[in-house]
Amino acid sequence: MSSESFVILLTIFVLAGFVGYYVIWKVTPALHSPLMAVTNAISSVIVVGAIIALLKAESAWIEAVAFVAILIASINIFGGFIVTNRMLAMFKKKEKKL
What is the model's pTM? Predict the structure, then answer.
């Protein structure tokens, strides 16, 4: 990989991070549950892409980055399910104790 293509990919990554941060920061509380579902879906695509990158890795550096991507996206997926479950539990009717 040439240094020019690395800089281009790094720039896209940084810009995507800024855009994602500002888009999610502006979400109203009513949309948090659907947003978490979409975030889980995006993270699952990241895991699949990182697994493919890991299988086709040509250097140890790429293997390390792919492994870190799998790890972080997996944490995001499981954390997202936990948060979504807790948010949905807030809308369930509480049973009356006798």
Answer: 0.59
